[in-house]
């Protein structure tokens, strides 16, 4: 018995013999009763918003191939963007920061200045003292 539908009564549906045979074999494949198989089919079409008269389009393998192609296209675009935009921009930014970094200069101390003075200046300082 079908769960949740035990107390419902049966209604007859008229089918052609060839359709009834095909439907019976499909019910056996699913291991469901005829009522549950028909209910599953109706819910499938309603949930997916498709009509049984419409085709589902290409098979899953074809769809998978198309998706892989698009992913490869996206990857190629991203790699091109990285080459042409990101890397040059990063290089420019690094060169700007390297140039703007202050160069380290030695502090000027009095002792070093006295030692670097020319000898004439040192002699004058000695004579004045």
UniProtKB/TrEMBL annotation:
Output the InterPro entries linked to this UniProt entry.
BfmA-like_N
Which portions of the sequence form the region Disordered?
Answer: 102-129
Basic and acidic residues biased stretches = 109-129
Record's protein name? BfmA/BtgA family mobilization protein
Q: Which organism was this protein described from?
A: Christiangramia sediminicola
């Amino acid at each position: 018995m079908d769960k949740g539908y035990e107390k419902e009564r049966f209604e007859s549906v008229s089918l052609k013999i060839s359709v009834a045979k095909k439907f019976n074999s499909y019910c056996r494949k699913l291991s469901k009763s005829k009522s549950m198989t028909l209910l599953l089919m109706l819910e499938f079409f309603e949930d997916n918003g498709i009509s049984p008269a419409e085709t589902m389009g290409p098979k899953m393998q074809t769809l998978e191939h198309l998706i892989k192609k698009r992913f490869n296209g996206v990857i190629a675009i991203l790699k091109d963007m990285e080459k042409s935009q990101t890397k040059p921009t990063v290089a420019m930014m690094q060169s700007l920061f390297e140039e703007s970094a202050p160069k380290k200069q030695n502090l000027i101390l009095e002792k070093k200045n006295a030692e670097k003075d020319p000898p004439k200046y040192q002699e004058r300082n000695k004579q004045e003292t």
